[in-house]
Write a structure and sequence with these properties.
Blueprint: H1 11-37, H2 39-46, H3 50-53, H4 55-74, H5 80-99, H6 104-130, H7 138-166, H8 170-190, H9 202-209, H10 212-232, H11 235-243, H12 250-272, H13 278-296, H14 300-316, H15 318-329, H16 334-363, H17 368-377, H18 380-383, E1 401-404, E2 411-414
Helix pairs in contact: 1-6, 1-7, 1-8, 4-6, 4-16, 5-6, 5-8, 6-7, 6-16, 7-12, 7-15, 9-16, 10-15, 10-16, 10-17, 12-14, 12-15, 13-14, 13-17, 15-16
């Protein structure tokens, strides 16, 4: 593989590897969110309430935010391609278990294991994607991974929702397991073998990660994802009970959300390399549109427009936030920070899903948008804090420049720092 001055791979190999990462993220994203569209059917089949079934989202998210970092910490010295393949293999197995005629507790455990594999995959995939391209394109490379998850919302989740309402919902998870196996084979074939950045031990990476600039970004991820999932977890029930949307038509709203999310990821990846205010703007838009849903009530078209804006902003900030987290951790902690970024988002998802279950049981679906908006609004004090330090990624180190002495003597290479 041809390499640029900063060590990033280019050419056909890099493009094929990025495509494989995006396709694998599509599979992972489909399994994560497909449960939202069939939650009511799963609840009936597993003999639990809708609020209890919502714990399947919580368990998955807890698997990501707890299991992902633990797996990452245990595998810091393992080559990235091997980690990606292992994560996809475990993911396939967990979805096979979820598709079997087992009790709710077994499905809950399978979702937790799948979540841990997801957390490991997304963190490693983001770090691998950023390492395949030059510094000025890293945001767009990370957006490929999030783009796969966004396209899962655009195509995978609506198709899974339709299939889950037309066929036994177990078929959905079996199909996802098959796709994960295919993604594993593709990843093994085209992703180059790249060692973890620096191969540093856990303690060394933690010293770079446990710093205030990184912790602020992680807290921002918790709140932004948590706020959204207060509503998104129970979106199917909200659309049916409050807006008046029935049955398979719920999939149309998820399709709109996914299409807008895919567009938002593309734009967000582009802005991640250029605009520092991307996360702030997204937080304001999210708070506003979620609050608007509280006022729209039974207006299906207006709700559809609001869902589109929500999807665009909700996915648009993700590449920028993930890239900034990796950069703030610097070369010494980038691999671990990438996994923690995904874990922080899913910690928010877990908290949001749990809150959604409790709020729905106590007050019904109608209160969810306002609570979601309030949580997203809490991020503004964090996103507007002055930056205590500058981004500390490898992007700040420019390629070696050669200087020739006036007398024509030997050339001396020196590292120059970006201003």
């Amino acid at each position: 593989m041809r390499r640029t001055d900063d060590g990033a791979g280019t050419g056909g190999t890099g493009s094929r590897a990025l495509a494989a990462l995006g396709l694998s993220a599509f599979v992972v994203g489909t399994a994560e969110f497909a449960v939202v569209g069939v939650l009511d059917r799963m609840a009936g089949s597993l003999n639990v309430s809708a609020a209890t079934a919502g714990l399947l989202v919580t368990a998955y998210a807890l698997g990501v935010c707890l299991g992902g970092p633990l797996l990452a910490a245990a595998t810091l010295r393992v080559p990235r391609r091997r980690l990606l393949c292992a994560a996809l293999g475990v993911y396939a197995g967990a979805n096979v278990v979820a598709s079997l005629p087992v009790a709710f507790a077994a499905v809950l455990a399978a979702r937790t294991v799948a979540g841990a594999a997801h957390g490991l995959f997304v963190g490693v995939a983001c770090a691998a994607a950023a390492g395949l391209v030059p510094a000025e394109r890293k945001g767009r490379a990370v957006a490929v991974v999030f783009g796969g998850i966004a396209v899962a919302n655009l195509l995978g989740v609506p198709v899974a929702t339709f299939a889950g309402h037309s066929l036994p919902w177990q078929y959905v998870f079996m199909a996802i397991a098959l796709l994960a196996c295919l993604a594993l084979l593709l990843a093994r074939a085209v992703i180059p073998t790249v060692a973890p950045e620096g191969g540093r031990p856990l303690g060394a990476q933690l010293r770079h990660v446990v710093r205030m600039p990184v912790l602020i970004l992680l807290a921002t991820a918790v709140l932004l994802f948590g706020g959204q999932f207060v509503l998104f977890t129970q979106l199917s029930g909200y659309l049916q009970e409050t807006v008046g949307v029935q049955g398979g038509a719920v999939g149309l709203y998820l399709l709109v959300f996914g299409a807008a999310g895919a567009a938002g990821t593309v734009v967000g990846g582009y802005l991640a390399d250029r605009a520092a205010a991307t996360v702030i703007v997204a937080a304001v838009v999210l708070a506003g549109v979620l609050a608007a849903l509280q006022l729209l009530g039974a207006r299906p078209v207006a709700v559809g427009v609001a869902v589109a804006v929500w999807g665009f902003a909700g996915f648009g900030f993700a590449p920028a936030l993930q890239l900034r987290t990796i950069r703030r951790a610097g070369a010494g902690g980038g691999d671990l920070a990438a996994t923690l970024g995904a874990s922080a988002g899913n910690a928010g998802i877990a908290a949001g899903a749990a809150a959604a279950s409790g709020l729905t049981a106590a007050y019904g679906f109608s209160v969810l948008p306002l609570v979601a908006a309030a949580v997203c609004l809490l991020t503004l004090p964090l996103t507007c804090l002055p930056r205590p330090v500058r981004d500390a990624g490898p992007e700040r180190v420019q390629p070696l420049r050669e200087h020739t002495r006036p007398d024509g003597a030997e050339r001396v290479a020196s590292l120059t720092r970006a201003p």
